[in-house]
Design goal:
This protein is α/β, with parallel strands linked by helices. Helices cover 34% and strands 18% of the residues. It has twelve helices and twelve strands. Strands 8-7-6-9-10-11-12 form a seven-stranded parallel sheet, with helices on both faces. Helix 5 runs parallel beside helix 6. It is elongated.
Amino acid sequence: MFKKLVAIEPLNLIPSAEKALESFAGNVTMYDDKPSSVDEIVKRIGDADAVLLSYTTFLGRDAIEQCPNIKYIGMCCSLYTPESANVDINYANSRGILVTGVRDYGDEGVVEYVVSELIRCLHGFGNNPDGTPRKPWSDTPREITGIKAGIIGLGKSGGMIADALHFFGADVSYFSRTRKPEAEEKGYRFLPLKELLEENEVIITCLNRNTILLHEAEFESFGNRKILFNTGLSPAWDAEPFVKWLAGDNLVYCDTLIALGGEEFLAHPNVICMNVSTGRTIQAFDRLSEKVLANITNYIKKQ
């Protein structure tokens, strides 16, 4: 059991899970806003031995080294690699601090978002951001059936998106750091990145935070009259070639501003950004809560 547990920002846990945190520590403090500075983070943590945070605050060495009592940091958000995390995991580990995170809790909503927006695009359902009626992508309404769709990053969410598009009849191919035999058994073709971009009309990037694979050469390969979805927590591209590509007859879809890369793109006619996380559903909060509590339970059991 912890002496003091602090949630330094809102965690997106369901109420029963927040209540359950009280059983893990003699003193529990939960903040309902995001800290505005490193000094504020340090002040909120104080002498706590357990810290919880979501994905919107970075907990770096500059804060951790000022809080000598920390033994456990629980990321109430996705953790895939130390490099993509919003906690300096390497430094924390060097101090003997365990950092845990969760995976695969909000993927279903992201899959629904990609399928929904692609259908609206192809059929011309709804209105453009400026309120004008949307025209079908190819002038005549189309189905997903037969469309060439490429997935960059065939992890859990990328695999689920591939399966969903395949169900609707898309011709699916992918690029990933490693080949996925189980995906290829379903008929999804592995292609080098350049070929994937050249061959597909629709590209969906499903990459870890701060992973950039689309540079100038990649956008040149992608070409014009294409549709790009980014489902990650940061842009999958370099800004300058992205701006140049966006000026063509192309479309980019992002659910959040952090995926798009900046407010300056929101008014662009070729950008469709709802500025809301599509992974934030009640079902996702249930899954997140269960996994966060399981991580804390497992840690305490081992002490």
